[in-house]
Amino acid sequence: MTDTAKEKEKLPLLMVYELDDTSGRHHVICFQDPVLAGSVGVDVRTIVGRYFPTGEGRFDPATFQFNTGFVLTLTDFMNQVVIEDPWLHQEAKHVAGGKLEVIDPRCVSAELIEIPMTEIVGWFAVDEAGKILRDSFLYNHNHVWFEPKFGTSGLLSLRTFYDFVHGTHKNRK
Fold first, then answer.
1. What's the pLDDT at 91?
2. Domain-embedded: residue 173
3. What is the count of structural domains for the chain?
4. In-domain check, residue 170
5. Residue 8 above 50 pLDDT?
6. What is the pLDDT confidence band of residue 78, given thresholds at 50, 70 and 90?
7. Which among 125, 150, 156, 154 is positioned nearest to 138, based on CA atoms?
8. Residue 53: beta bridge partners?
9. 103 to each of 7, 51, 122, 123, how far by Cα in Å?
10. Is residue 171 part of a domain?
11. Where are the alpha helices (DSSP H) in the chain?
């Protein structure tokens, strides 16, 4: 890996812009590093969502509204990249004829007896033979991107997801 590539790996993947429009002052959270945003502008597909800050200007997760376009991008990522994960195919055998839950990566190492709906990103459909059906990922609209107890969604720290969103996933080694 080159020094430039190493430095790129260290860049933050999320950034916040403050906007004023007819709905008032709010912020958008983008899944785009500041160097890329500064050089080419903010791609609307990278906007995770928006929120209205508290009176002190802090992030208020209660006002967060996700961008449905970003969810479509996530669905494409799940159906094109995540579906190739061999571990998922092993797990699918245990839920033949049902659906395979995809848990938010931020929550995977937590010692939880039951996974809250806020931590389930979505589901893949699994056929009777225990095989994941192509293009079957269904996003869970109860999933919380910024959860006070667990933090920011682990999806937003996955370089493979970031590269997919920016069209560079096939070029990385």
1. 96
2. no
3. 1
4. no
5. no
6. very high
7. 125
8. none
9. 30, 24, 7, 9
10. no
11. 3-10, 34-40, 68-80, 86-92, 159-165
